Amino acid sequence: xxxxxxxxxxxxxxxxxxxxxxxxxxxxxxxxxxxxxxxxxxxxxxxxxxxxxxxxxxxxxxxxxxxxxxxxxxxxxxxxxxxxxxxxxxxxxxxxxxxxxxxxxxxxxxxxxxxxxxxxxxxxxxxxxxxxxxxxxxxxxxxxxxxxxxxxxxxxxxxxxxxxxxxxxxxxxxxxxxxxxxxxxxxxxxxxxxxxxxxxxxxxxxxxxxxxxxxxxxxxxxxxxxxxxxxxxxxxxxxxxxxxxxxxxxxxxxxxxxxxxxxxxxxxxxxxxxxxxxxxxxxxxxxxxxxxxxxxxxxxxxxxxxxxxxxxxxxxxxxxxxxxxxxxxxxxxxxxxxxxxxxxxxxxxxxxxxxxxxxxxxxxxxxxxxxxxxxxxxxxxxxxxxxxxxxxxxxxxxxxxxxxxxxxxxxxxxxxxxxxxxxxxxxxxxxxxxxxxxxxxxxxxxxxxx
Length: 450
Fold this sequence. Notes:
Structural class: alpha/beta
Number of domains: 4
Strand order of the largest sheet: 5-8-9-10-7-11
CATH class of the largest domain: Alpha Beta
Largest sheet: 6 strands, parallel
Oligomer: single chain
């Protein structure tokens, strides 16, 4: 019967995606079996439940085809693996990170790792091949001298994807490693709360001594946050000395982040700094092909090539075009043809070109009933500051203008502009009424009603 199981694995390897086979089917081991029942072992209880829910039916179907009769599959948890896992729990404590590679995975500290942000779903091109290689090397630990990576790109190019892919890979290969994934803003808020709750020692212990891999997104939002910078710099010292892995991501080079202390800037710069550029045409085509396949979209090569040639800004714009085309075709009950694709893509491109800093200023001034001269004035009145901060936030979100240009257009330094963006993002998270205001403006801009 073991021969039957080997034959079934060969068939499944051809039927399902390679990364799914390696993660879920390959670890299953044959125990015993007869014509009616086959017993297989799995590494842990979560693994067993996942197989029973998602893959047991297809396994039983293939076994039954080979045997010529119905055969049940029973999954048992390997005793050897359980003992091994228990030892790791005892060794590293309750923070053991189990492998959840196909689900949204919660790292030990912070946010969920998005289930589709893996190396298998990342499209490699000339614009990002070095960043991909550096990320893969750090995740696989092939280069033991590389402990730090700084991923640099504009919004929507894939830096968060690569950062989380490292987390997914390490969790999958080294389940006892404690992977912490946070944004710079999360780290700041968590530190502030720990001071308020008189638990700063727990916070320090968590990041300094109970962390094996630290992923920090959007580190440019640390600008001006002196106390957070000091704490993070000290944390990084502990992690570097312990030879832990650290991955940063940002829209700016360390040298270009304003109001950043020299020690932290040095820490950001001491590892590999890898830039991700906008994808070229061939890479855009491959991105659309992969997204179509993963989501089950039936889109012709003609449409894919048209979208790739028209939507050139970033990966998010490509995804927006693909989703727009398929959604419009589905809602109207019509096939996806070139005319439909043109109507969607042209709207995206036109809308993007029409959104300027001046347009955003006029929209904000109209809604808040202030003048254009007031929004760029030196006034510190609350009824002027709040609209100004909102306008700067929207300018950053919806235009390609550098922070320096945005700041200058509001008669502010780029550090002040960055502070405004941070303030609005924090208010959106903490203030429901303010979030509704932000959503209102975003909807106005995205629908072109400005």
